[in-house]
Amino acid sequence: MNKNWFGGFLNNVKQTSGSSGGSSGVNNVSVEPLMDKIQDTSLNVEVKREAVTQLSSINRSCHQAVGSRMSVLTNLLEQNKDDIELVREIIQILTLIMTTLPKDDNIIEIHNTELFISVKNNFVVICDLLKMNDYYVRYYIARFLVILIKNRFDAVQEAILSCPMSMPNIMSLLLDKREVIRNEALLIILELTKSNQEIQKIVAFESAFEILLDIIKKEGLSEGGVIVNDCILVLNNLLKGNVSNQNFFRETGCIQGLAPLLEVQNTDMWILSDNKFNIIMSTLDIILTLVERNNVSTPPNQHVISHSGIMNLIIRLGLGKMSSQVIRSKSLYTLGEIIHLNPENISEFSGVTMKSEVSKQSQTALLRLTTVMLYSKDIIEKAAAFHVFKSYLYNNEEAQMALASTIISDSSNTGSDSSSNNNNNNNNTNNTNSKSNSPIDQQQKLQLEFENLSIGQHLYKALFSWETPIPGKPFDISCFWFASVVLLYMLKDSIHTKEQLLKMPLEVPKSSAEAQQPVTLFTKLMDCLMATKKQDIDPTIKIGLLKLLAVWLADSPKSIQIFFDGKQHLAFLVEIILSPVPTTSAGAGSNSNLHSHIQGLCTLILGICAQYMDDETAEKNKSNLSSIINHRITVNTFKEKLDSLRKSDSFTNAEQGEESFDPSSTAAKTIILYDFDFTMFFKDVYDKIRHIGTNINKPRPGKRLQQNNNTIQQTQQQQQQQQQQQQQQTSPQSSSPLIEQKNDHTSTPNNNSSPQSPPIPNVQQQQQQHDNSIEFNNLKKVNNELIEQLTGIKLQFQQLQQHSSQQQQLHQNQLQQLQQQLSSQTPQPQQTTSGASEQEILQLLEDKDKEISSLSDAVYKLEDIVVAKDDQIEEVNNVIELLNKQIQQLQQQQQQQSSSSSPFGNGGNGLDSSDYFELLRLRQESEPTQNRVRQLENEVSQLNQKIIYLTNENQLIQQQKEDALKKITSSPSSNNKNEPNSLKLAKLEGELSEMKIKYESLLKEQDEVLSYSTKIELENSNLKNQLSKLQQ
Q: Which of 365, 832, 881, 1012 has the most beta carbons within 10 angstroms of its beta carbon?
């Protein structure tokens, strides 16, 4: 009865499982006996085959049960490799229990996959079975490998690398003549070669390149379908980021095999099939991989691509009649990468000509590229054309200067063209003249005139197209933008091009006045910028013009000089920087953000002017520019404007690197304000000008002294007040510690009314005293270092005094010579000797200028040293203030317990005998420093006397100069007989006055050095007071 009951229960389970599962098959209960039969070694193979056949019909609910005993199936598979039918059924069962469904969680199937891969021998057995030539075995294994890769990609890659012969067996599937198996093999290799370079190398050295190119040829090259595209994708996986594979691909001549994939017939230019479109796009991806930047193999790859004709095919796709805008754009982007930093390809590209669509005449590919960049209706295609221009001009000064030579006003060429056209029209008949007046002929005439414009004329016309908009035609901001950035890279890092455009007029001068002041591109640019104040224009136009101006002024002192010649240019930039940000209304949010970019670029231009101006421009404008930056704008605002630009989203996105071609992105469909190269330019300038406020108006010695002297006086007053309070509080006590010792010893027997207790030391106070002694030693070291530095400064000051004394002697000698010449001057010898004497005087004056410049340099170095020493002294002052606070705290504690304490008393707050003798020792050690301070004071007083003596001598020399000048100007012979000599003497008088001014500046600098020495003297006295206080 139990058996019947159990059998009935099994039947019920079968029915319920079949109804719930929704499919008929073996259930969980029947799996176990089948697996036991397969595992039983005593049974025949036929019995096991029947059990495997029954397992092949299991439903999804049995996957876990079969997966838990998967080793039974794999062992049977390994033992019976030659049994084709058994192998087929086991592979089908393994595939079944690992197949995932899109709408399920698939946890069991993923777990079965992990169990299978965890045993290394399983993968070896599967790959060895690929040696069999049976169609179904190879096909089932290929499908099984696809499922394994889909479920656990990384684990399959590791298993393949651990099994040496697995990859060659998988590659053998590509050579299978049966297309179904070959196509499955393509899917397997396409997935395996996505990321692992080791697998990529193994596949490449298994002749994958030749096999794939052979498949592409058999499938019809560009006329092929999905199989050709899959082969190209596998090639791209093998080459991307793998230098060794790229070298192998190039050396085996496989790059030339890509050319037929880019050949397109004229009939296909208008209508492309989806397969051909995908093939061309995938082939362009391979070319981009081969010419990737910052790659060692890129230059030889560029050379082979050019010589194999691939570059010409890409030019035809990008600038030809291809109807697909995406293919045109990607072809242009690829062309830019092919010619990047490759002079051979650049020269070949510049020599390419194409037939015009209107005039049917040949025109250069550069001119066609210009028209595409400026007048295309798609901004993605415009950006791709600009990418070619940028690569063409990058580090190519010859091309930059050649392009700059074509920049002239479009009106300058229309006159010649119209005159030639008029001459031709005069030779025609009246019938032709009547036909030329038709609208069609006029339109063709305009198109011919448009094609006759040069590249520079197109750029000039687009750059200033916003000034005179055409009625009825909307203004194209992208046309202006790409013209401005092309001109920017035409000027970038090329000083010769900048100077060439500064001299070259835009139009042929028609009068002498225009010839004297020709209109150049720089003056036109500045006039347009100044005109933006009166016009309400798009902020993007200002950004483009300011970027162009910033690059032009960088590392170009002549451009900066012309910039400062305009009276309103500097005020224009300052006004923009200080202007408030417009309020953000509903439609003005983007404009307010762009306003911060405009302010940041104006600030950048100011910093460039301060950094790169020459000496002549600096003498005229540096004081004005420094006062504007330091006082009107302020240094903080100057840095804030630069930082706001640098931290903007558009700037931070651009500094991540060059963007790849992605027509589907939203950024590709808008104007990008900055690119990677401009961010690098901005950072380079930013690093040079970020300390611009301190460099322009550097603190000189004496200017910082007032603050320091005030702080010193305040600290001295505080110290005197504290000393007076202490004297008032400690007046009944003895003045010296020795007397206090004696009095205490003598008074102890009388005051011992209470029993004595042993002295209890205060641990905290001893620790504080120990710390104070350590800080005292550190202060001594700092004081000694300052003294050594002071001696070095004094040596430099003595050297300056020697230079000044030598200069005074030379001035005296010159004045004596002048007086002798004037006293011994007669009318006849004056004409013979005046020229030589004047030349000698001029040479002497030049020598004096050089000496003065060297002295000024030395003074500036001394100023730097002084500023550094000021900082060190401020740090020492801070340390001294901390010590003062600690000493005050200790004194307060002592004053609170003074009634019950004694130097050797029992309170524990007084000093110990060892501490007292330690203070005595410190006082003895400080005596040499005090003597040294006194010596320094004496030296400073001597220096003061010398300076007074020098000032008196300078006054005498100045009086002698004035007397000599009076004699020169009042001499009748020089006024009446020799007017040229009087002019020269007047010139010398002016030069002498300039020397006088320079000499007075030297005197001021000497006074400043003197004030600095007084400051050091005060610092020494302050340190001396601190030492004495610590000793007390």
A: 1012
